[in-house]
């Protein structure tokens, strides 16, 4: 496999099948997607990481086809973080850099909180650290879809109507300055249309709110110690920039917050050159002596 090719693979973790996209060889960089998205979200990033000397792997998160739907319906953040840590082992590595967007971002920094010895560095995109989140009335309004998704049955009907037009509208709202031609929502809609796919995706939100538990909150709010690079799009219609103001207070290691004007929720795809340059520089920096 050349450094710029993307191949596919799969592994089984405790009986749950995970499919992934992969490019390159070298130290492992695990890229975790969010909602509404799939591993294809990192198709531009994987070859760039590969060319820089890394083994870049983007799994389809649990419940997202072609990965399996968990029989127990567990979509807790701690379960997602556990998947990331287990994938590191299953891929034959002892540690990895974690890059996470949206739900993948929550999973990435929670994995770093639970097992910092397995996470060399951390990149989080478009979600705050729950240990230092500054809430606002504006954010409560932006989060209308979170409350909608708590309802039974109705959200499934609304989201899948007219070929998942709901997803198109979310992208337009969350990334208002991004060219719609760049959305490329075919893989997302295919994953949601797969058996159990839409219920699984909404299950992430339902587990966070309706199934809230102390152990998950503790893992999410624990201080993150590994070197961390955080990205926020100032035009994000899903999570506003004011929510991230105190993020540094939840990180005890080297930390940088990158705020990009005019960029929406999908930072890594909307501003790929800036994002990739910052990430590559961050990964290349020698870690401070302990």
Explain the overall architecture.
The protein is 38% helix and 17% strand. By secondary structure, the protein is of the alpha/beta class. The protein has an 8-stranded mixed sheet, with helices on both faces. Helix 1 links the parallel strand 3 (28-32) and strand 4. The N and C termini lie far apart (37 Å). The model has no long low-confidence stretch (mean pLDDT 95).
Output the radius of gyration: 17 Å
**SSE order, as H and E?**
EEEHEHEHEHHHHHHEEHH
User: What is the CATH C level class, in words?
Assistant: Alpha Beta
Let me know the number of strands.
8
CATH superfamily: Alpha/Beta hydrolase fold, catalytic domain
CATH level-3 fold name: Rossmann fold
Compute the average pLDDT: 95
Strand order of the largest sheet: 1-2-4-3-5-6-7-8
Give the terminus-to-terminus CA distance: 37 Å
The helical percent reads 25-40%
- Principal-axis shape equals globular
* Share of residues in strands: 15-25%
* Unreliable runs: none
CATH architecture assignment: 3-Layer(aba) Sandwich
Q: How many separate domains?
A: 1
Structural class based on helices, strands and sheet pairing: alpha/beta
Put simply, the count of helices is 11
Largest sheet: 8 strands, mixed
Q: Could you list some keywords that capture this structure?
A:
globular, alpha/beta, 8-stranded mixed sheet, Rossmann fold
Write the layout of secondary structure elements.
Elements (H helix, E strand, L loop, with lengths): L6 E7 L2 E8 L4 E5 L12 H7 L3 E5 L17 H14 L5 E6 L1 H12 L4 E7 L11 H6 L1 H5 L5 H21 L11 H8 L3 H13 L4 H8 L6 E6 L21 E6 L6 H4 L1 H13 L6
Parallel strand pairs: 3-4, 3-5, 5-6, 6-7, 7-8
Antiparallel strand pairs: 1-2, 2-4
Helix pairs in contact: 2-3
């Amino acid at each position: 496999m050349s450094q710029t090719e993307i191949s596919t693979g799969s592994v089984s973790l405790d009986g749950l099948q995970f499919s992934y996209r992969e490019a390159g060889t070298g130290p492992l960089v695990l890229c975790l997607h969010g909602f509404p998205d799939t591993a294809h979200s990192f198709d531009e990033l994987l070859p760039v990481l590969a060319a820089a000397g890394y083994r870049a792997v983007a799994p389809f998160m649990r419940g997202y086809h072609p990965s399996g739907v968990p029989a127990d319906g567990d979509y807790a953040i701690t379960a997602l973080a556990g998947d990331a840590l287990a994938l590191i082992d299953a891929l034959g590595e002892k540690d990895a850099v974690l890059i996470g967007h949206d739900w993948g971002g929550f999973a990435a920094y929670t994995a770093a909180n639970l097992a910092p010895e397995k996470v060399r560095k951390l990149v989080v995109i478009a979600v705050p650290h729950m240990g230092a989140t500054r809430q606002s009335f504006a954010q409560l309004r932006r989060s209308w879809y979170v409350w909608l998704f708590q309802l039974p049955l109705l959200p499934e009907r609304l989201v899948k109507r007219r070929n998942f037009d709901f997803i198109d509208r979310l992208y337009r709202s969350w990334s208002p300055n991004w060219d719609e031609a760049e959305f490329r929502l075919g893989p997302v809609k295919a994953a949601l249309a797969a058996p159990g796919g839409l219920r699984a995706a909404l299950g992430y939100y339902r587990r966070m709110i309706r199934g809230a538990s102390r152990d998950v909150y503790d893992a999410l709010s624990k201080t993150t110690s590994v070197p961390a690079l955080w990205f926020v799009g100032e035009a994000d219609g899903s999570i506003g920039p004011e929510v991230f103001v105190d993020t540094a207070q939840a990180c005890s290691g080297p930390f940088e917050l990158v705020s990009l004007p005019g960029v929406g929720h999908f930072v890594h795809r909307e501003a790929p050159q800036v994002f990739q340059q910052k990430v590559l520089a961050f990964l290349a920096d020698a870690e401070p002596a302990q």
